[in-house]
Design a protein that fits this description.
Distance between the termini: 60 Å
Structural class: alpha+beta
Order of helices and strands: HEHHEEEEHEEEEHH
Strand order of the largest sheet: 1-3-2
Number of domains: 2
Shape: elongated
Number of strands: 9
Number of helices: 6
């Protein structure tokens, strides 16, 4: 019979590699071949924490799971399910893309986890870009930029999942943000302090000038 660790690993894999504790409980209950004791939910939590270097209870044997810190309690995923953002055919693996100036595309582990939570759906216009191989694509935007002089944190509350068009508009301060018009997801919500920072420091607006353009702009011809 499988160990509890293996049962939990299979359960997380069966729900797509990431999910809430409630989803993991449901999957364990559905897949387990063993009678579940009254304390089985606590056992599931124990296995997640014992086998995750993100946890203070990590046992330093198997680092199978990650916890999306700051995204809300109970969001867990399989480290083996994390994938880097696909590279375009005309680019080498790099963290910089040259246009008229350099834009830094941050593909941190935290950014990938938030993108997976949203299934690569733009939080402004709802677009999901599908690639030829069937995978989906999105970009993670740190509302308060990570680099100097902004020194923003790499936390879920400072990350938006965007299509390339809206990512560029926000990077260049060409649009403002309004929390009420940004799609939220259970376990992930951006904080107002970062939105205020973008509107003030990046877009250069006063509070009375804040507006959002929810429609994805048509690509230039």
């Amino acid at each position: 019979m499988q160990t509890w660790r293996e049962d939990v690993e299979d359960a997380v894999r069966s729900i797509g590699g990431q999910g809430s504790l409630d989803q993991i409980y449901e999957a364990v209950q559905s897949l387990s071949a063993r009678p579940l004791p009254p304390s089985w939910r606590a056992i599931v939590r124990r296995e997640l924490e014992y086998n995750s270097s993100d946890s203070e209870s990590y046992q330093r044997r198997f680092d199978l799971f990650f916890s999306v810190r700051g995204i809300g309690a109970g969001i867990w995923g399989l480290r083996a399910s994390e994938e880097a953002t696909p590279q375009g055919s005309d680019t080498e693996a790099s963290d910089r893309v040259e246009t008229l100036i350099y834009r830094v595309l941050r593909d941190t582990a935290m950014a990938r986890r938030v993108k997976k939570l949203h299934n690569d759906r733009c939080q402004i216009c709802g677009t999901v870009l599908k690639l030829r191989d069937g995978k989906t694509y999105s970009e993670a935007h740190h509302i308060r930029p990570l680099g100097l002089p902004h020194s923003g944190p790499d936390v879920p509350a400072n990350i938006l999942v965007l299509c390339p068009n809206h990512h560029a508009l926000l990077d260049y301060g060409a649009m403002s943000l309004n929390e009420a018009e940004v799609a939220a997801m259970k376990g992930h919500r951006v904080e107002q302090e970062f939105i205020d920072y973008h509107n003030r420091e990046i877009a250069g607006l006063k509070a009375s000038q804040v507006r959002l353009e929810p429609e994805c702009p048509a690509p230039a011809v």
